[in-house]
Amino acid sequence: MESDMESSTSTPAEPPTTSPPHDVEATEDEYALNSDYEDSDAGSAECRAASPDAGPRFQTAANDVPPSATARRAALAQKKQERERWNHVIDNWLELEGQDLTKLANDTKALKKMRKDGWETDPDHFPVHEEFPGLYDGAFGPTAEVLGFAESPLELFLFFLPRKFWLKVKKESNQYYNQKLPGRMEAKFRAQTGDNQLTLEQIFANEKRLHKKIEAHEILQCVGMLLARMLCPHTRRLSDRWATSSVGAIPVGSFGRFLKRDRFDRIMRYLHFSNNAAPEAATDKAWKIRPIVETLQRTFRSGYQTPPILSFDEAMVPSRSRFNPTRQFVKDKPHRWGTKLFMICCAQTAYCLRLEVYCEKNEQQATSGPTPADDNSGPAATLRNMNAVLPPKQDGVYYAVVTDRFYTSIQSALQLLERNVYSVGTIQTNKKGFPPALVQEKSKRPKDIPRGTTKIVVAKSAPQMSAMVWFDNTIVYMLGCGTSTSMSTCDRRLPRTQGQSETIPCPSAMKAYHRWMGGVDVHDQLRLQRYSLQMSLRFRKYYKSLALGLIDIAIVNSFIVYREACKIRGEPPADHADFIAQLHAQLLAIGPAEFVDTMYSPGPATPTCDDASSTSGRHRLEMDDEWVEVNGIRKRRQRQCKVCTIRKTVRSKRQMTRFYCAKCSKGSKR
């Protein structure tokens, strides 16, 4: 075929001897665009004009080439030139920058060639650079916005799960009650036996008389009660919390002081977070908890400045329910069955910046950012979530992410490097582009190789990237971008000894991995191994258990911010149990006034000043938009409450508030 093609392109195509019919006559543009020869001028106007047998239809000047044909030839020439440039780069393994890194990540043939000769094995030719050059060294941690609420555990909790969210939960719970009401009443009607049976209308009337709409503050009071049960559990049954008499050393229940048992049961029965009738309910496996996830994604990001080093890993929200469509099995986790979350945490404080529910590979929500070259769920999730939390790209400013072998690949590392993100992690040897020279036959270290032996290779096209094999008791494969190729040391336990350890050599990348990988694991320990709202209670409905697991994550983030704020204020470190105890007490004290924008002030029983009459009537509360800095912490200004001042009976007692009525204040908030 190639010889036939070459012979056909060497001479111009002869024009037809007879004119075609009028209805099939082609224009010059159509003839040029439909030419069979992309690399020849057989269909060009110059060739047709030079032909002595060309008819009048083909007689045209050389400078009258149609624009579409010219643009097409220019595009083909540019494409050919780019292909030649790229082949030259790959053949000589020139250093890549910018978009060429992503181009290499998407070029399967180039990655195959990279396995063979794309790695430098001679240590004398390794580049010399410090670890993570250009790593971001600016401020990071809790934002000024969230630090303004850091004096109160409740305000921190409501920052991450705001009042608007709980108003939505109230709306969806009442809607869910209305959706289930006809079916429940009909089932109750059919279940009647004996004489004096009620009609369906009477059953509906009784239900309407007994039921009260669920309120947002009642839902938060239920959360506070569950926190109390978590701190001080009665493991026999939840109803013991409403016991009216003590038995020996077992005290009476205390929950009845805050909410009646039947009311608590009704609220928890109809607790709901999304509309079952929405179209997304049929396609989104995580639709039942989607509002919580979206709220946490937004508030977690706004509450923390991106740190220089992040850890990315999966976390489990325990759930063994077979009705849970997002249930996964992860054998290496303490809770092997549950909903898997992709989480990005600060490597230093374990604060969760973003979470994403895993809903099968082909159902992950599309987000802005580059298309992942490695479409496996792990590396694709790393790239997707990193793009969601990183600030805009700046020249010379880099961040770093630490992953394990399920989320590391050469393709994702190249794409992250283009985004000014270094990556460090263990890696599987079957990933595209990984050098086979490092792969060992067995997974255990041979006895003739000393423990701590390391072999390192450096990518020729990306000198920041290095792959290595480290001989511990088991053989560990690593991939590092931005890490140094120098060696360090680490302490490892000796086998079959009682805690004895030895110092062995290790690559700098391995030491960085050991230091920074635990961010997600520490967050899981705070959530599941200390105090877990989810693990303190079981539900028949799987999504309620998942919702409590997500609330646990919000509580852990609140505690981390509270702990960091204590450090800033120079106070002693915060205690986790004390924080939860304060939070539960504040949740139980919440009333309906926390969730209304418009309320009626009761007015003083005994007016004491001329302006007392102005406190009665209709008021619209607004939050003070002024901010002050107290001990280096930015928070909203608080002033003395006018209503409390009029009604107070103790002279020294003062009540401060951030809210005021603009109409009554008449321009002055004092």
UniProtKB/TrEMBL annotation:
Residues 1-69 are annotated as: Disordered. It comes from the Eukaryota. Residues 152-559 form the PiggyBac transposable element-derived protein domain. Coiled coil: none annotated. Residues 1-12 have a biased composition (Low complexity). Transmembrane segments: none annotated. Residues 26-41 have a biased composition (Acidic residues). This is PiggyBac transposable element-derived protein domain-containing protein. It comes from Phytophthora rubi. The lineage of its organism: Eukaryota, Sar, Stramenopiles, Oomycota, Peronosporomycetes.
